[in-house]
Amino acid sequence: MTSSTISTSKLRMGMIGGGPGAFIGAVHRTAACLDGEIQLVCGAFSSDPEKSREMGKQLGLSEDRVYGSYKEMIEQEQKSKGMDFVAIVTPNHVHYEPAVLALRAGFDVVLDKPLCFSLNEAHELSQIINETGRTLCLTHTYTGYPMVKQARQMIARNDLGLIRKVYVEYPQGWLSHEDVNSKQAKWRLDPKQSGPSGCLGDIGVHAFNLAEYITGLQVTHVCADLRSVVESRQLDDDASVLLRFNNGASGVLMASQICTGEENNLKIRVYGENGSIEWQHGDCNTLAVRWFDSPTEIYRTGTQYLSQSAIHNTRVPAGHPEGYIEAFANIYRNFKRTICAKTNNEKNPSEQWEDFPSIKEGVRGMAFIETCLANSKNNTEKWTELNE
Amino acid sequence: MTSSTISTSKLRMGMIGGGPGAFIGAVHRTAACLDGEIQLVCGAFSSDPEKSREMGKQLGLSEDRVYGSYKEMIEQEQKSKGMDFVAIVTPNHVHYEPAVLALRAGFDVVLDKPLCFSLNEAHELSQIINETGRTLCLTHTYTGYPMVKQARQMIARNDLGLIRKVYVEYPQGWLSHEDVNSKQAKWRLDPKQSGPSGCLGDIGVHAFNLAEYITGLQVTHVCADLRSVVESRQLDDDASVLLRFNNGASGVLMASQICTGEENNLKIRVYGENGSIEWQHGDCNTLAVRWFDSPTEIYRTGTQYLSQSAIHNTRVPAGHPEGYIEAFANIYRNFKRTICAKTNNEKNPSEQWEDFPSIKEGVRGMAFIETCLANSKNNTEKWTELNE
Amino acid sequence: MTSSTISTSKLRMGMIGGGPGAFIGAVHRTAACLDGEIQLVCGAFSSDPEKSREMGKQLGLSEDRVYGSYKEMIEQEQKSKGMDFVAIVTPNHVHYEPAVLALRAGFDVVLDKPLCFSLNEAHELSQIINETGRTLCLTHTYTGYPMVKQARQMIARNDLGLIRKVYVEYPQGWLSHEDVNSKQAKWRLDPKQSGPSGCLGDIGVHAFNLAEYITGLQVTHVCADLRSVVESRQLDDDASVLLRFNNGASGVLMASQICTGEENNLKIRVYGENGSIEWQHGDCNTLAVRWFDSPTEIYRTGTQYLSQSAIHNTRVPAGHPEGYIEAFANIYRNFKRTICAKTNNEKNPSEQWEDFPSIKEGVRGMAFIETCLANSKNNTEKWTELNE
Amino acid sequence: MTSSTISTSKLRMGMIGGGPGAFIGAVHRTAACLDGEIQLVCGAFSSDPEKSREMGKQLGLSEDRVYGSYKEMIEQEQKSKGMDFVAIVTPNHVHYEPAVLALRAGFDVVLDKPLCFSLNEAHELSQIINETGRTLCLTHTYTGYPMVKQARQMIARNDLGLIRKVYVEYPQGWLSHEDVNSKQAKWRLDPKQSGPSGCLGDIGVHAFNLAEYITGLQVTHVCADLRSVVESRQLDDDASVLLRFNNGASGVLMASQICTGEENNLKIRVYGENGSIEWQHGDCNTLAVRWFDSPTEIYRTGTQYLSQSAIHNTRVPAGHPEGYIEAFANIYRNFKRTICAKTNNEKNPSEQWEDFPSIKEGVRGMAFIETCLANSKNNTEKWTELNE
C-alpha cells in the first residue's frame, strides 16, 4: 500500500473546526464525502495549530493545506482557488465571524446550527449573503430524512386537510447530571461559547425548524417556559413552549436535556382535519399516517409508493435502514448539486436538490430563540409575537 | 334453561344512568361485577321510565327494582335496605344532585368523572361526605392499571430520584369532525350537560389526575391554552397546559379531542434525577424505566418482580393481556373491599385496597379545570395558582 | 350488606375443577360471567371434598350445590334440572371421563384444551356428541380475539390472494428451569396427568388451531422435531414442526416452554399472493396487514372499519385495550347464544354466534399431537400425513 | 469548481462489477470509502466495456484505470502496483474465477456472498488462500452491526448460560410476484447466474451465518424444506430448515422471498438457560435481552455500557441511528485495518479489527446450501449431517 494520486471533479471543501475529539466535525466530513461528490481538501481544524496539524495528518491532507487559523485558510485558499466552499463546525461563538469572512471572500458556506449568537447577527449575515450572492447551508439535519420529506410533501399537497395542531418534542438525557466533563458538554453549558440559550439553541431550534419545515407554516406567537434545572447551570437546560401558527393552528414544543434516560428522540406529530402524521428520530425510516376512519398507514423508506422528494433522498431499498449520517449527507448532496448548477449557470435538473436549510431558516431560528428568552422572563405577557 | 335463584353475599349496587346506548354505564356494570364481589340489584337507568324498564329487563332485574327516577330509587332502596351503594354514570349535569341525595340517604357512592360542574359543588360534596361519613369513589380508571401503580410505587420509594419534569398527554381524534351525531358526543359538546369545559373536563382531568397520582406531587400553577378548534363548538376541544409542581418540577399537559386518527392514548413520562418512567394506555401492560447509564428496563404486568401494589391489581400471569375493563374493575374491587372492612369495623387486611380515587381527587380535578379556564382567558397573567 | 336474592334468566353453569390455586378455573368463571349471560350455580371444584367446599363458599354458592365429585354433581343436577351446562377445567387426565358423563346426562360441555389424551378418545367423544345432539365448546381462547377474527374474515374473502406460507410460533419461558414447583407446572410435566405430550399439548395445539382457524386451511403433513430440553423432563418442552397445508401452502410451527424470558407471545403470520397479515398476542388489539406495493395498514380493535365478526366480539371503543379475559368471554358468549338458540329452536339471530371451537377442532388437535409425536421419533420418514 | 489532485495514504481498491443499475456495487463503494481509509482507484464495472467506462467516468476515475474485463484489470494493476485489493460485487457466477485470478496475482479480496457456486469451489478457494497467504473478506453484512457484536460477546462470556434454541428468520416479499423485471431479480432467478440455490443462497446463507456468528456454535444437522412457490420459478424462493447445533441446541431457520409485504427483516432470537437475546434488522440499533425473572433490558447502540466490540463498530452517539451502510462499512474497515497491520508486519493494535467474515464462513455457507439442497429432496432421511 502506497500513497496514490487520483484525479476527480468533486466539489472541494475546507473545514473550520472539527479537531480531535469533536463529534459533529467528523459527522460533517463523513456526510459530505458519502456520495463521492465532495472532497475535503483543506482545514483549520483547531485554534491550536498543533492540533489542527494533527487532525490534517490523520485525514491524509497535505501539510500546506492545513492551517493554524481560519483567517489564514480563507486568505490562502482565496488566492490559490483551491477550495470551493467552507464548512464551519465550531462551537456557536465561532460561527458568525468565519462565516462573514468566508462569504466576503467569495466562498459558499455550510454552517452548523444555531446560525449565530443573536437575531442581529443573523440579519447581518443575511444581508451579506444578499450582497455577495453566495449560498449558505445550515445543517438542520433532521430535515434531511426521507420520511420527513415525505411528511412535508403530503401536507403540502393537502392530504391531511387544514393543519390544526403540532406537537414537537426533543428530549435528551445526557446533561441531566451536574458533573458533565465531556468536551461536548462544556462549551454547550458556557454562555460565552454557546450564546444566550442552552437547550433551546442546541436542540430546541431543531424542533422549531422541523415543525416549520414539515408543516410549511410559520410560528407567530410563543409562550415559553425555559428553565435551568441542574444546579449551578447558567443556561436553560429545559424548555416548554406553547405555539401559535400563521394559519391559526396551535402547538407545543418541548426540548430538554435533563430527561434522564432519553437518547435523542426528536418526534413530531401534526394533526390535520382529515389525518395526521407522526415521525420520530428513533424510528427514522418510518412515517405513521393516521386517518379519521380507516386503518393507520405505515410508510417506509425505500418503498415504491413514496413521493419524489423522499425517493430522491434515499440510497438503499426498503428494509435496509438508513440513519443519521445519510440524512446529513442528503443536506450536503442537495447543497452541492445546487451550487454546482448555480456555478455552471445551469438550470437545476431537479428542484429536489434545492431542498436544504438556508439563511432564511437561520434567521427564523434566531428569532425563535430570542422571542422565547424574552417571553420566558415576562410573567405579565402570556403570548409574545415572533418577529424576524 | 330456566330462571334460577342464587344466594350470595356480595355488595349490592344500584345504578343511576347507563340506559340503552350508553357506553360508560355498561363498562361500570361489567367492571363492578367482574370479580364476583358486587352485584347489580336495582337501577334508574334513564330519566325516561320506559327506557329504564327496558334496560332493567335486559339486565335480568326484577321489575320492582327498576325505577323511573333516581329520587324514587334512593327513597325506596333506603326503606327496603336492598342496596349497599350507588353508581352514578350519567352525563356530568346529573352528578351532583343524585350524589348528594345518595350520600344523605346513607349510601356510599361511585361517581364517574368529572366530579361535578364547579369547584363550589365539589366543596359541598366534600362537606357532605365529612358529615355523613360515607365513601365516594371517583372512577379515574387509569389509576387502576397495575403498571401505573408500579410507577407510583417506584417513584414513592425514590427509585428515580428528585422528580423534575412531567409530560402527560391525552390525544383523541373522535371529535375532530363537526358533524358528530353519536349520543356520546352530543352531551359532551353541550355546556348544559357537560359543564364549563369540554375536552379538559372529559379527558384532561384524567391526565391531571394521573400525573398527580403517579408522582405523588401536586400541581401549584398552570399556564393554559384552551381552544375550540372545530367550528361552531362552544366548549374547548383542545388543551395545552404548562404546569408547575409543589417540589419545583415543571410539566406539560396536553389533551385534545381533535387529534385525527388518535384513539385514546393517554401517555405519561416522568423524569427524575436518576431515571425516568414511561407508560402509555395503548400498551398498558408495559412500563418502560430508563436510567442514566444502563439499559432501559421493560417491566411487565403479571411478572414476579413487581411491587405489591401492581401484583394486587393483576388477575392473570405475564403475557396474558389485561385491559380497560380489568383496570376499571380494580377501582371497584378496591372500593368494595374498603367499604366492607369499614362496614364490618375491621381493619383493612391490605392497605392496597384503599387505593382508589376519592373525593379528594375530585376536588383537585375541579380546581384544575376552573384554574385552567380562568388562566386561558387571561393574556396578562402567565401563571395562575391552583387553589382548591 | 346482607345476602340477597335476585331472579335472572341466565344460562346456569356447573364447574368441574377450578379449586383453590387453579389458574384457568378462575379465568373460566370470570370469562363465563363477564357479560351477565351465564351464572355459576354449582361445582365439583376439587377431588378433595373439603377443598371443593372451601371454593364453593368463597364463590358464594349454597352448600347443597357444591359437590365432592363430578359424578355426584352430574347425577344430582340431572335430577334437579338446576344446571344447563358443565365447564370442565381440570388437568388433561380428567377431561374425557367427565365430558362423557356430562354429555350422556344431557348437558352441553365447555372443555379446556387439549380435548383429551388420544385421538381414539377424541373420536369417541365425537361419536357421543353425534348421538346425544349435545354441543361441546373447546376453549381455544386465542380464536376469541377480535383481530384474529378480522384476519380470518379477510383471508376468507380472499383479500390476501392464495395463501402460500404460514408462520406460527408460541414461545414461553416459564418452564425453562428445572425446579418448577408451582401447581400449574407439576401436572403439566407429569405424563399421567398431562398425557403423551407436554409443550405440544399445552400450547402447540393452540398454535395449530390458530393457524387452521385464521387460514381456513387444514394441515395435511407434518415434519416434527420434539425435544425434552430441561434435564429429567419426561415430556417434550420444545417443538418445531414443518407443515404442509391442503392448498399447497407450507408452514412452520414453533412452540416452546424453554424460551427463557418469553411470556406468552403466540404470534402468527400468514402470507398470501397479494398481501399478508401478522397478529401477536402481546399486542392483541392490533392486526398488521402488509401489501406488495402500498403502505402497511394497522387495523385496530374497536374501530368502525372492521368486519362484522370483529365488531361482534368487541366490547369497548378503539383505544380501550381488551385482553385475555375478554377473548375468553367471547368464546363463552358465542357458545351460550348458540345453545340458547338451539334450545329454543330459534334460528340463530347472528351466525357470528356460532363461531367457537367445537369437537371438530378438538379431534384435529389430537390428530396433530399424535402425528407429531410419531413423526418426531421416526428418522426415515420426513413427512407424515395428518389423518383424523 | 475544478478538478483537483490530492495525496493520501489510503488503501486502494479496485472493483469488479457494480456497473450502472447495480445495487450492491454502489453500497460496496460507499461503505468502503465511508471512513476515509479506502479509496476506489480502478474498476472493471461491467463485462460491457462501454458500460464500464460510463461508470468509471461517473465515479471520477481516470480513463486508464477503467477496464473492459477483470482479467485485464488484474493483469495491468499487478504490473503497475496501483491497486491494493479487489472487491468483487458481480452476480454469483462471476465470483469464483475473478477471485482465483486476483488471489493468485497477489491481491486480497472482498467478495459478496455467497462465496461461489459449490462447496468444491469453496474448498479450492480456501486452498488458494492458504497457498497465497492472501486475505478474503466475505461481506456477510449483518455481522457488522454493533448490536449483533454485542449479542455475540454476551453469549461468548456466558451471560445467557447454555444456549438451547435458536430462531433465525429472513422474510422478504419483493420476489412474491411472477413478473419481476428488475435487473436485481433477473440474475437471482437464473440458475446459470445464481447457482443451484435461489433464496437460500441469496439470503438464507446470511441467516445461517448470523446464527453461527452470534452463538459461536456450529450447525451439525439440517432438515430442510425448500420450495419454488412462484410458478415457473426454477430455484427455491422459500426455505424452512430445522437445525441441530454442536452443543445440542436446536434451531429453526426460515428464509423466504415470497413473504408479500416484508421488506428485509432478518431477525434472530437465541435462548439460553438464563436469558435470551433478540435482534432484528428493522430495529438494528436495539438489542433486547430477556431474563428468567427480571425486567427485559433494552441495549442501544452508542451507549456507554456496551462491550468493546460494539463500541468499536459504532460512529455516533446514542440516539443517532446507524444503518446498513455503516454496518457494511464496519466490515470494510475491519478488513482494511487487518490487512494493513499484516502488510506492515505490525501486531494488530486491536483484535476487534480482525472481526470480519472470511473464507471460513464462506466454506461453511456453501456446505449449508449444499446440505439443505440434498436433504430437501430426500424424503427418507430426516436429518442430514452438515460436513464442510
UniProtKB/TrEMBL annotation, chains A, B, C, D:
InterPro entries: Gfo/Idh/MocA-like_OxRdtase_N, Gfo/Idh/MocA_oxidoreduct, GFO_IDH_MocA-like_dom, NAD(P)-bd_dom_sf. Transmembrane segments: none annotated. Residues 148-278 form the GFO/IDH/MocA-like oxidoreductase domain. Residues 12-138 form the Gfo/Idh/MocA-like oxidoreductase N-terminal domain. It comes from the Eukaryota. GO terms for molecular function: nucleotide binding. PANTHER family: CONSERVED EXPRESSED OXIDOREDUCTASE (EUROFUNG), OXIDOREDUCTASE. Belongs to the Gfo/Idh/MocA family. This is Oxidoreductase.
